[in-house]
Each structure stands twice: as structure tokens, then as C-alpha cells.
Amino acid sequence: MSETNAEITTADLYDELEDALDSCSTQFRRFGRKARFHGTIVTVRCFRDNQIVKETLNSPGEGKVLVVDGDANVESALMGDMIAEAAVKNGWAGVVINGAIRDSVAVDELDLGVKALGTNPRKSAKAGEGEKDVPVSFGGATFTPGDHLWSDEDGVVVTSAENAKRLSTVA
Fold first, then answer.
1. pLDDT score of 171
2. Residue 132 contacts by C-beta under 8 Å, 6 or more apart in sequence?
3. Are β-strands 155-159 and 29-31 bridged in parallel, bridged antiparallel, or unpaired?
4. C-alpha dihedral sign at 71, 74, 76, 82
5. How far apart are CA 115 and CA 96, in angstroms?
6. How many angstroms separate the CA atoms of 116 and 127, rounded?
7. Which of 41, 73, 80, 169 could pair covalently with 103 via S-S, beta carbons 3.0-4.6 A apart?
8. CB neighbours (10 Å) of residue 96?
9. CA-based angle 18:20:24, to the nearest 5?
10. Count of helix runs (H) and strand runs (E) in the chain
11. Is residue 1 part of a domain?
12. H or E segment and range at residue 110
């Protein structure tokens, strides 16, 4: 591949790696100014409670991508503009949420890649219920902490850290 990692499209990745990739079939909406983003995966599993999401995005991101499995629930938002602003400030490349966000107009102004199922103005609970750094699965893909995710206009793909390293030597 002649492109740098930032320029590799999900279609090119699939052509290169095929079965070594998981392609997420979930049809996300795009938010934030970054249409394309990629990075090492950090995960959170939570249900209508975003305290762990908030704590995670308020920590150093170092170009990583947070994948949040909210069980495809859109009855309350798992991220809003203040948490998204913290993600930018802390160097996160992007956030993929199997759930809803809020403050979408403000999030669209941020230099962050965001994929979510939709929006809901209702805030979530703050009890801290959920899990961090556990494998999560949705849309036919498994997101394991330490693996690598790419997101662009065509979708979301994930591969092992080993395959991602192999790609970086080819690119």
C-alpha cells in the first residue's frame, strides 16, 4: 500500500486484509469534523450510564479510539459536547458509540471523529455502572482492547494489533 495510515480507506484495508478484518455492519451516523480516524481500541460496555465514558475520555487518549457498547440503546445519550470536548483536549482520535449522543451541533464543530446510532437530548445516569477494557461485539465485529480500528465514510473495520503492525510496515 502506498498510502500512509491516515489515508488508508476501509475499502483498501479490506482489499488488503480481507478475512483478517472484522467489518462492522452497523449503520452509524457520522458526527464531528473528522470523517476519517483510526487508532488503538479502548472499550467501554455500559447501559444508559456514561460515567465510565466520561472518565475514560478525560484521560490521555494518545490517538486511541474509544468504542462504547451501549447495547444499541438510544433512549439516553452516552456522550455530549462537554465529554467530546474533553476527548479532543486529551488527544483521542475518535469515538464509536453503539448508542446515542447529544449536543450534536456542538459535537459537529469539534476536531474529533464520532460515529453513533443517533441522538437523544436525554442525559444518562452517572452511577459508574459498566465495564472498561473488555471485548465488545456489535454489527458482526468484535472490538478487543489493543486491536486497531479504522473508520471512514464507508464504515468501520477492526483488526488485531499484529495485523495493524504489519500494515504499518507495508504502508
1. 47
2. 42, 43, 44, 52, 56
3. unpaired
4. positive
5. 5
6. 22
7. 80
8. 26
9. 80
10. 5, 11
11. no
12. none
Domain assignment of residue 5, yes or no: no
Identify the domain containing residue 121 by its residue range: 10-168
Coil, strand or helix at 85:
helix
Task: Find the CATH number of the domain harbouring 41.
Answer: 3.50.30.40
86 within domain boundaries:
yes
Q: pLDDT, tens digit, for every residue of 49-89?
A: 999 999 999 999 999 999 999 999 999 999 999 999 999 99
If phi > 0 it is left, if psi is from -120 to 50 it is alpha, else beta; for residue 161 that is: alpha
Instruction: Tell whether 34 is covered by a domain.
Output: yes
pLDDT (tens digit, 9 = 90+) per residue, 113-129? Answer: 999 999 999 999 999 99
Based on the structure, what is the number of domains in the chain? 1
